[in-house]
């Protein structure tokens, strides 16, 4: 009964508050339905803050609120305050779809940054695999959006044919990746302090995507063996940072690992900072590989359930076009690490960028903020 009453109250507040006057200089940002300061909305929010905007951030709880930088106002998800500020803001920035009860009215701008270069089929291209309530929300989200942000010619085309969207696309790169185009030695120290990591250990970031059943049995990497192989190939002692997808971050404790070798970083809010702190990446089908490409660091793919994953939604293109070699078991992963060739990886990455039109300008957040200011002048 309490849940029903909460939904009724929430929906009524959206209807009432959406009729209030808008404040052009106020922006409400959100990442992955209430995560902390992270992803492209954080980069855009930071840029808007520099330009004098009031920036609010929707959070799930106190932990997420504590991640916000000074000057950013936390708003508890679905609270009366959050609904009020969203309804009266001049700008929304989000990395995921908004639910169908969300109301955008009047002179509000909604920027949809999305959350990654897709490998598996998504949205309209995977409609049969998606829940009806999500499809309904996605269609409305695209109707409300004034701008989608893209990092490539390929993603722009997917927006136009598979997102129920026929509006403007800004192809400037993902704002979250601007940080990767700059030197940030202080961030490595920040990550090590936050995760209690020794200064002398090299870091492998293991960041796989989630599976349809949201189970963890598929994450069967032999971390100790992997760390030894990395030491043999690149030198030094290695620690693995385990960063699970936000959808299953709470399940990290279910994965067996040696705490002397693996550190759980699943709750660390900003994966871009982990990219900068790490010396190599291990992933599977996740779009993190395409972000990490901007660093030029070694990347390895471990895909031990290829046919099952392909049978879920299938892929947009042949995986052989990926700039990184696929390994399907721990033997193959160890061999890939030992035989890593830096020049070969760089050549494959450049070929991939050219074929798919990938670009990371390093100034995407500025481009989005410029677009907002120009539109608000009209």
Automatic annotation (TrEMBL):
The lineage of its organism: Bacteria, Bacillati, Bacillota, Clostridia, Eubacteriales. It is a peripheral membrane protein. The keyword Transmembrane does not apply. It comes from Neglectibacter timonensis. InterPro entries: Glycerophosphate_synth (IPR007554), TagF_C (IPR043148), TagF_N (IPR043149), Teichoic_Acid_Biosynth (IPR051612). PANTHER family: TEICHOIC ACID GLYCEROL-PHOSPHATE PRIMASE (PTHR37316), TEICHOIC ACID GLYCEROL-PHOSPHATE TRANSFERASE (PTHR37316:SF3). Keywords: Cell membrane, Membrane, Teichoic acid biosynthesis, Transferase. This is CDP-glycerol glycerophosphotransferase family protein. Belongs to the CDP-glycerol glycerophosphotransferase family. It is found in: Cell membrane.
């Amino acid at each position: 009964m309490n849940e029903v009453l909460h939904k009724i109250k929430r929906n009524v507040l959206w209807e009432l508050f959406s009729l209030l006057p808008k404040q052009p200089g106020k922006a409400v940002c959100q990442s992955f339905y209430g995560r902390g300061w992270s992803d492209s909305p954080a980069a855009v929010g930071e840029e808007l803050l520099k330009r004098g905007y009031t920036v609010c951030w929707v959070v799930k709880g106190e932990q997420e609120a504590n991640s916000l930088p000074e000057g950013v106002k936390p708003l508890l998800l679905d609270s009366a305050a959050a609904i009020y500020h969203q309804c009266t803001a001049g700008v929304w920035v989000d990395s995921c779809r908004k639910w169908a009860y969300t109301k955008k009215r009047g002179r509000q701008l909604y920027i949809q940054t999305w959350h990654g270069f897709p490998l598996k089929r998504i949205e309209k291209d995977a409609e049969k695999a998606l829940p009806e309530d999500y499809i309904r929300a996605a269609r409305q989200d695209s109707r409300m959006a004034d701008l989608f942000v893209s990092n490539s010619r390929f993603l722009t085309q997917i927006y136009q044919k598979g997102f129920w969207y026929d509006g403007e696309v800004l192809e400037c790169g993902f704002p979250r990746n601007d940080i990767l185009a700059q030197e940030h030695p202080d961030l490595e120290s920040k990550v090590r302090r936050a995760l209690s990591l020794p200064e002398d250990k090299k870091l492998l970031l293991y960041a796989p995507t989630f599976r349809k059943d949201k189970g963890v049995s598929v994450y069967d990497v032999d971390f100790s063996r992997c760390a030894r192989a990395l030491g043999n190939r690149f030198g030094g002692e290695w620690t693995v940072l385990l960063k699970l997808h936000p959808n299953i971050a709470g399940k990290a404790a279910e994965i067996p690992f040696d705490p002397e070798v693996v550190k759980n970083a699943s709750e660390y809010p900003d994966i871009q900072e982990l990219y900068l702190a790490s010396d190599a990446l291990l992933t599977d089908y996740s779009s993190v590989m395409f972000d990490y490409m901007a660093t030029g660091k070694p990347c390895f793919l471990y895909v031990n359930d290829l046919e099952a994953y392909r049978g879920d939604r299938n892929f947009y293109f042949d995986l052989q076009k990926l700039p990184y070699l696929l390994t399907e078991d721990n033997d193959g992963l160890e061999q890939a690490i030992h035989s890593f060739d830096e020049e070969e990886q760089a050549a494959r990455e450049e070929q991939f960028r050219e074929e798919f039109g990938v670009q990371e300008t390093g100034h995407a957040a500025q481009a989005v903020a410029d677009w907002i200011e120009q539109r608000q002048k009209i």
